[in-house]
Amino acid sequence: MEQAIGTTVTKLIMDEQRKQPSATGDFSSLFMELIVSLKLISYHVNKAGLLNIIGRAGTTNIQDEEQQKLDVFANNTIISKMEYTGHLCGMASEENDAIIDIPPEYPEGKYVLMFDPLDGSSNIDVNVSIGTIFGIYRKVSASQGATLSDFLQPGSNMIAGGYVIYGSSTMLVLSTGHGVHGFTLDPNVGEFILSHPNIRIPERGSTYSVNEGNYCRWDEKTRKVVNYFKEDNEAEGRPYKSRYIGSLVSDFHRNLLYGGLFLYPTDVKNPSGKLRLLYEANPLAFIVEHAGGAATDGERRILDIVPEQLHQRVPLFIGSKEDVAKATSMLSA
Ligand code: AHG
Ligand code: MN
Ligand code: MN
User: 210 burial class (0-12, 13-18, 19+ CB within 10 angstroms)?
Assistant: First the structure.
């Protein structure tokens, strides 16, 4: 459905609901509460320096990563806002070791939320764009409450996914399976307003995004892929520009709008890759595919991978279809 510029995300969610005759409104209600969480996080990210919530929290998470105060704030905001909706049976967060159960005082629902509450945390204190990444699935287990099987679903089961980028403006990029739409937060109104309807990623880009500092740790095939995009071959439109922000959401967002390839390959220190399948790779793969792009782990389609662990890491090659295909073919040759 064509949405007019100026439409709110509320209208898009209600339109999606009306398309489903069997819809109960549960998903819409769940999603609107998630939106409130994202607005709260946006406010605190933008005020972080003034609210004394930048800097280290003095704790580490399951990934053995030092948590930033904003990591903890964003995580607690989403959990506390979502647990009482009555539409979730459980949640999984980058910041929590195990599944987050719904407290007994609240009813349980038929959906599952997986999220990275704050992506790009190392950039918080230097005012570089960061984000939140999320994916929503239907509960698949028959039991009361959530079980691991509700979370170890392939990304192709996702019913809605997206991210928020807290940058020069706060923008929500979302798909419920019918196109990809970008909403910019109007701080005066406090509403996400449709600013980028029907985002499509160019078939081929002219930018590659990778942490070249890992070059010495890559295998030969990975070096060949990166060197291919750096090669001086005017006739084939190379070398590509190099852009790397170090916040996955920011690097991905630029490539989604302009085209290009983001890659986080395996390396000696990250033999399974660094990025997490459930709440980084899958939601962005869901978005990029619905925008006409592609995402693989160097061999397999990201959305086909059946997770084996909650915090499973994967190599990630994501962006313009032709660029991902080229990188994947070189890696699996
Ligand atoms: P997070 O802040 O959620 O831990 O994610 C950080 C990730 C991702 O945002 C980014 O693409 C990547 O780490 C950067 O890793 P390097 O610093 O190793 O390049
Ligand atoms: Mn992250
Ligand atoms: Mn994070």
Answer: buried
